[in-house]
Amino acid sequence: MTEVFHKATLLTSRIVSIRESGKSVGLVPTMGALHEGHLSLVKTSKQQNEYTVVSIFVNPTQFNNRQDLDKYPRMPGKDMEMLAQAGCDIVFLPDEREIYPEPDNRQFNFDGLDRTMEGKFRPGHFNGVAQVVTRLFDIVQPHRAYFGLKDLQQLVIIKKVAKDLHYPVEIVPCPIVREPDGLAMSSRNMLLSEEGRKKAVILSRLLSRAKEMKGNRTPDDVIKFVIHEMNKKPGIELEYFEIIKSSDLTPVISWDAGAEIIGCLAAWVGKIRLIDNINFSL
Ligand code: AMP
Fold first, then answer.
1. C-beta of 128 in contact with ligand 1 (< 6 A)
2. Which pTM was predicted?
3. Beta partners for 170?
4. For 259, what's the count of Cα atoms within 13 Å in the CB-facing half-sphere?
5. Whole-angstrom distance, CA of residue 56 vs CA of residue 95
6. 215 CA distance to ligand 1 middle (Å)
7. Is residue 257 very low, low, confident or very high in pLDDT (cuts 50, 70, 90)?
8. Catalytic residue numbers, as ranges
9. Ligand 1 mutation pick, 27, 52, 74, 150, max ligand atoms within 8 A of CB
10. According to DSSP H, which parts of the chain are helical?
């Protein structure tokens, strides 16, 4: 049976008793409208912990655009069914007052990790992410927390926050789960029109082609190629494509940067903004 908590204090008491009995706790933070990508995080947490907690909270402080927040898909009934089916032990469904009893004015220092890519195009986004994730860490006190590599910059920033603030939590990265045609799974995909859904496959296709070019082209050539190809597609607008080191998110000028290299993009498909990335080092 999946236990459901709405109140932070009640959940924390439950977690304290779980921890006191010597059992481990894994946390999977989500904004709901769940799909197989989220469930893969749940599955990994279940393999590594005795208890898995999934939180569902559409966090207003990480949305820099009110319309985006309003139209974000919400489907709690279906989410609960999927989590019960997946064998999730505890679901945390807080309302805004539980997470922010008072306005959260904390400002985090990411040492510039938030100045590029998502942070550049979504000002304040990562500060909001850090606010909610640290609140969730305080409430759930997990041994491990699971984050998808689809949101690579988020993962890198959360790792830094957890380390800087000395949270005793292991941040576990989980691979990107894709649709059969290659589109990275996302709650936002359900907002795409039928036509948009067909067009959206170009994102992952171009990332794969970019990776194939690695053998005989420079990173700069590959960037130019992706920008050029994207600009040719009607109904798709590329916001950025960058080839960076995952360690510090800075751009690489050569493939032998001695670090893990990732190509990251964001693009508008009609009115829906999608992100994706590919690991050039695997
Ligand atoms: P969200 O509900 O979009 O905030 O996502 C919650 C968590 O699921 C984040 O750690 C995401 O990176 C992760 N996630 C979302 N989509 C995918 C995917 N396609 N594959 C793997 N992880 C994902």
1. no
2. 0.98
3. 144
4. 16
5. 10
6. 30
7. confident
8. 38
9. 150
10. 8-20, 36-48, 66-71, 76-85, 96-99, 117-121, 125-140, 152-164, 194-199, 201-212, 219-231
Question: How far apart (Å, rounded) are the C-alpha atoms in residues 220 and 229?
Answer: 14
pLDDT (tens digit, 9 = 90+) per residue, 62-74? 999 999 999 999 9
Task: Kindly report, residue by residue over 118-167, the tens digit of the pLDDT.
Answer: 999 999 999 999 999 999 999 999 999 999 999 999 999 999 999 999 99
Does ligand 1 come within 6 angstroms of the Cβ of 151? yes
Q: Which two tokens stand for residue 271?
A: 């009115």
**What 3-state DSSP class applies to 261?**
strand
**CA torsion, ordered 2, 184, 196, 267, to nearest 10 deg:** 120
Q: Is 127 in the pocket of ligand 1 (CB under 6 A)?
A: no
Assess whether the C-beta atom of 277 lies below 6 angstroms from ligand 1.
no
**Ligand 1 site-directed mutation target among 55, 151, 181, 187, most atoms within 8 Å of CB:** 151
- Tell me which of 30, 63, 133 to substitute to probe ligand 1's pocket, judged by most ligand atoms within 8 Å of the beta carbon: 30
8 Å CB contact between 239 and 127 = no
Is 187 near ligand 1, meaning CB less than 6 Å away? yes
What is the residue whose two structure tokens read 């985090």? 108
CA of 176 to the centre of ligand 1 (A): 8
Assigned token pair, 272: 């829906």
Cβ of 277: how many Cβ atoms within 10 Å? 26
